[in-house]
Amino acid sequence: MKFDEAYSGNVFILSNPDFEESDVVIYGMPMDWTVSFRPGSRFGPARIREVSLGLEEYSPYMDRHLEEVKYFDAGDIPLPFGNPQRSIDMIEEYIDGLLEKGKFPLGLGGEHLVTWPILKAFHKKYDDLVLIHIDAHTDLREQYEGELLSHSTPVRKACGLLGAENVYSFGIRSGMREEFQFAKDSGMHLYKFDVAEPLKKVLPDLAGRNVYVTIDIDVLDPAHAPGTGTAEAGGITSKELLDAIMMIADSDMKVVGADLVEVAPAYDPTEKTQIAASKFIREILLGWTNKK
Q1: The domain that contains 197 carries what CATH number?
Q2: Residue 113 covered by a domain
Q3: In this structure, are residues 133 and 118 in contact, taking their beta carbons and an 8 Å threshold?
Q4: Does 205 count as an annotated binding residue?
Q5: Which cofactor(s) are needed, names only (predicted)?
């Protein structure tokens, strides 16, 4: 796969045109082949980039400027429409290549199944990997309506790959009774409803660990993020998610990669979802990608 060709359309604001000299690679995964309710998240990566042009380049949260981070927007992986297995194979291969080149991968989804092949690639490099999962949904199903490849399964798959004790879920407010029972019995760490407060308690235990973070935009209440495929009432605010991002930035963990998924622009003509997502990406770039 090619890594060093810039996206042919809009790129994330202030993207460096030079792949080789960049430390971070932003890439899109325009896939929504397995969604269980509303499709459209395949259009999320492009729109997050487009609305980023309205961002300030300076963050008062991090007291940093985007010029201080070298990142390259590689555009979207050309995933084959309607073919989940081939798509996840391509994503895994792509991340393998980025990690081999020493880049920090920052992914834009796409449905949440895209996180599964990313974790498979990271697990090859980091055998002690921890997953922080911020989401409205448990994503702990083994299958959905008989389909093993589903956006409702990636965290269950991660528990099998990484060890359930290395999986931490925050903000969860939706799932089957059996999923919550699995979380309890397996030894994974599942925190319902809130993000910032339980995260604050957990972070000291993860000091020095290699951590991958996945954020599903539907962790936000639909009042703050209606543009998503499976909106769930009772969520957190944009400010609370920003607080969590800053906590992670200030922690002693080593964040080795991240993604933000499930932005579906068609359901939010106000653009508040896309605008929030692009701001979260800015803060991740400034707060997480410089952690050594």
Answers
A1: 3.40.800.10
A2: yes
A3: no
A4: no
A5: Mn(2+)
